[in-house]
Amino acid sequence: MSSNIRITRICQYCRKEFTAKTTVTKYCSDVCAKRAYKARKKAEKIEVSEKETETIKAKPVEEIKAKEFLTVKDTAKLLNCSIRTIYRLIDNGSLHAVNLSQRKTLLKRSEIDKLFV
Question: Can you give the pTM of this predicted structure?
Answer without folding.
Answer: 0.54
